[in-house]
Amino acid sequence: MTFTAISESKKSDHLNEMLRNKQSASLLGISLVTLWRISERDSSFPSKIRISSRCVGYRRGDLLKWQESQMGA
Q1: Helices vs strands, H then E, count in the chain
Q2: Beta carbons of 35 and 28 less than 8 angstroms apart
Q3: What is residue 33's predicted lDDT score, i.e. its pLDDT?
Q4: What's the CATH code, domain 17-72?
Q5: Could you tell me if 62 and 18 are in contact, meaning their C-beta atoms sit under 8 angstroms apart?
Q6: Would you list the domain boundaries of the chain?
Q7: Is 71 exposed, middle or buried (0-12, 13-18, 19+ CB in 10 A)?
């Protein structure tokens, strides 16, 4: 495995990292309430991923893509 392949693998792992609500809100620079509102009202916002019966999360890469799309809007 080359250095490039290793660094691409780590980048992919980083973007696929699962973030809980508090981490997601912090990444986006918003409150937990605003995160909830956006997730309920904005159809372009990434879907929640159920981790357990009482726990959801978001993929870091999905949140970053959504944030980039909002910058251009």
Answers
A1: 4, 3
A2: yes
A3: 98
A4: 1.10.10
A5: no
A6: 17-72
A7: exposed
